[in-house]
Amino acid sequence: MNTNPDEATLALWLDDELAGADHAAVEAWALTRPEQLAARGEIRGWRATMAAAIPPSEEPPYPDFFNSRVLQAIREQTPVAVPQVKSFSWKSWCMPVAACVGMALTFWVGTKTKATPEYDVAGAPKAIPVEPVVYTPENGVNAEWFASQEASATVIVLKGVAAIPDATDFSETVYLPAEREIDSTASTEVEPTLEKGQQ
Amino acid sequence: MIRNMIHQEADAWDLSQEVFIKAWHALPKFEAKAKFSTWLYRIAHNTVYDWARKRKIESSGEFNDEIFERERIDSASFTTPSGGESPDATMANAELRVKIQIALGKLSPDHREVVLLKDVQGLSYKEIAEAMSSTLGTVMSRLFYARQKLQALLKDEYESR
Q1: Of A17, A49, A73, the CB nearest to B17
Q2: Does B161 score more than 50 pLDDT?
Q3: Is there a smaller number of Cβ atoms within 10 Å at the N or the C end of chain A?
Q4: Segment A29-70, tens digit of pLDDT
């Protein structure tokens, strides 16, 4: 290259951005100009220093959280697909009118129709009252029942049942849960107080 | 790039998220005239400058240099670059990184961005011009002056290497 390259070409060459014939031409021109070769070497060194000191990319502190926030924001900002609005047609106004006319016609027909005849229920079969049956658990025990509508009470009398001895301890027939089963979370130190009405 | 443009780490990550969200919404408009990465850098550039503009308005019209300033680095910010380096090299690079970040903080946002895009991200002049909506000549000029100023700020460090 006999003539000097323009500033833009020289800047591209200094930053190693020239290629092909342009690059070869400036290289040939720079061979006799050590200051230009030194300038290019300086820029190369500078770029290497910068690249070593500052990483070109950096991971976010919490990548998953970062990505999830981006995705969430995209989801929230993406408009929901709106169904297409049908174009106006005769059906859009004709159908409601037809429905109203149909309802009015049905009502009018209903008012003109004969009332449903009442059926005679006098001859219908009546329910037969059934005597209640009382079953006893033991043979030889007879059970009778008496009902009083006035007292609204029913009494069942058992005959033939052996007398219960006085020594019978009824507490044995009652299931008392163990202390642990009562309430494992309740305090055992304080006894619960009951109101008189509840006892 | 955003992490190096804005010194508040939380704001930088918020803006990074915003960039991805904007890119997602703008994806149907991407015409593949430029590289996808250049297109993404352009969105990042616009997002950062919009954010800075809003901050400027919020601060009663006065330009707040602290937005881009790196002299006050967050205590929680990462100063150790990732990679499998030796502990000595890691420490030396960490120190250098802090010094470079402080020096970058003294540049104007335009100069800082052009240095970051060229020397850290490795974009070409043409790609930087597309990302910054600028001309090739402007990018070349900004990079030349930005490098000069940075080298002057890091003179001791730079000469020892």
Answers
A1: A73
A2: yes
A3: C
A4: 999 899 999 999 999 998 988 888 888 888 888 888 888 888
- For A50, the closest of B16, B82, B119 (CB atoms) is B119
The chain A residues in contact with chain B (CB within 8 A) are 7-8, 11-12, 15, 17, 43, 45-47, 49-56, 58-61, 66, 69-70, 73-74, 77
Interface test with B, best of A23, A50, A65, A68 (most B CBs within 10 A): A50
Q: Over 80: is that where the pLDDT of B53 sits?
A: yes
Candidates B17, B100, B120; nearest CB to A69: B17
Q: DSSP assignment of chain A, as one string? A: --SPPPHHHHHHHHTT---HHHHHHHHHHHTT-HHHHHHHHHHHHHHHHHHHHS-S----SSHHHHHHHHHHHHHHHSPPPPPPPPPP-HHHHHHHHHHHHHHHHHHHHHHHSPPPPPP--TTSPPPPP-------SSTT-EEEEEEETTTTEEEEEEESPPPPPTT--GGGGS----HHHH-TTS-SSSPPP--GGG-
Average of per-residue pLDDT values in chain B: 81
